[in-house]
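Example for tutorial group B:
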């Protein structure tokens, strides 16, 4: 049984707590830490069967009974807490992104060099049943050589301008998942990024220095071209689809819905909207990624997504930002490695 400490009891900390308590074998949460731990969260943690709560994550790092930590706190804490946890000999599952700064991710890489702890980054969409099926078809050669990869990723609601100011902006907070998806489906890295973008959803996002609508084209190392389209607001809900077109055919997904019922009447034909947002759409993938992390610890195998997989999408995000600022294609090699 792997004993776990959770650092950060916000949205994603609660998701991983629920997964471990209900869906992950061979893991048990001993302690949850959050500086804003209050009576309500404490009660909730105990109702989930968690033994301890604390305001100080250092208690988790100092606990010899705890084998692994999940870093689910605000993004600016990910790289420093990763390094502290690695030094304390704890296996680390770190939510995305590890950091906005390449140099700080390199510090995490350096800390990992002298240790044998497992490190996994939270790109959960790789574990989604739809995207896994697309990947499997590509890997099995069913569509031949990939030529065009298309990822559609649109949120149902924009975040606040306040959030955008600290999140690193659309490319480091939202598109980062799509950059990972493109790497996953292509099976290789990107060499160049070009972005067309606009503020069409919420002017306050523009005033905060970000964009809310973007089409990103990427040249992949294997010759394929990838296209990601993002919007911070799709009126019909969370739009999450992928397609790979290749020399022998194409594989594509549709959105998950509550049911597949289609109602046909004299007025028209209607179906259900996509599941609302990531908490509805991706719960299975969160549990699956966690099972993989725990398995890697138990069986002493590599995690499916290591620190390099955390670094590459950040570099792609920084290239995308530069492309917007300078309105030109940006080579990945231009971003300091
Ligand atoms: N993989 C995904 O799909 C996904 C989804 C949501 C969020 N995230 C990532 O997870 C992270 C958290 O996002 P969220 O939506 O849960 O945010 P949130 O604001 O709901 O929760 C963050 C929590 O971390 C706590 N915290 C801050 N500093 C801390 C510290 N030093 N020690 C312990 N706790 C601390 C805060 O008090 C807060 O409760 C972000 O980096 C985000 O990018 C990933």
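The residue assignment follows.
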């Amino acid at each position: 049984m792997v004993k776990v400490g959770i650092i950060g009891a916000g949205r994603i900390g609660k998701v991983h707590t629920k997964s471990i308590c209900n869906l992950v074998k061979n893991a048990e949460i001993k302690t949850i830490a959050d500086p804003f731990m209050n009576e309500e969260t404490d009660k909730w943690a105990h109702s989930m069967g968690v033994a301890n709560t604390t305001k100080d994550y250092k208690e988790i790092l100092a606990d010899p009974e705890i084998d692994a930590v999940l870093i689910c706190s605000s993004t600016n804490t990910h790289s420093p807490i990763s390094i502290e946890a690695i030094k304390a000999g704890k296996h680390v599952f770190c939510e995305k992104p590890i950091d906005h700064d390449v140099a700080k991710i390199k510090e995490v890489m350096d800390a990992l060099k002298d240790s044998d702890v497992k490190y996994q980054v939270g790109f959960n969409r790789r574990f989604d049943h739809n995207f896994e099926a697309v990947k499997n078809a590509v890997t099995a050669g069913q569509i031949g050589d990939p030529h065009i990869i298309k990822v559609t990723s649109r949120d149902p609601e924009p975040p606040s301008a306040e959030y955008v100011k600290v999140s690193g902006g659309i490319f480091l907070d939202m598109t980062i998942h799509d950059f990972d998806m493109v790497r996953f489906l292509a099976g290789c890295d990107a060499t160049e990024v070009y972005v067309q973008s606009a503020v069409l959803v919420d002017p306050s996002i523009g005033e905060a220095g970000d964009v809310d609508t973007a089409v990103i084209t990427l040249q992949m190392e294997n010759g394929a071209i990838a296209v990601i389209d993002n919007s911070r607001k799709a009126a019909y809900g969370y739009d999450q689809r992928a397609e790979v077109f290749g020399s022998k055919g194409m594989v594509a997904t549709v959105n998950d819905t509550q049911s597949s019922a289609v109602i046909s009447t004299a007025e028209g034909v209607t179906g259900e909207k996509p599941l609302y947002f990531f908490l509805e759409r991706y719960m299975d993938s969160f549990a699956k990624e966690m099972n993989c992390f725990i398995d890697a610890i138990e069986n002493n195998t590599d995690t499916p997504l290591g620190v390099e997989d955390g670094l590459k999408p950040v570099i792609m995000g920084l290239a995308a930002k530069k492309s917007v600022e300078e309105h030109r294609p940006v080579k990945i090699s231009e971003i300091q490695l």
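The chain has a mean pLDDT of 97. Compare this with the pattern of hydrophobic and polar residues in the output above.
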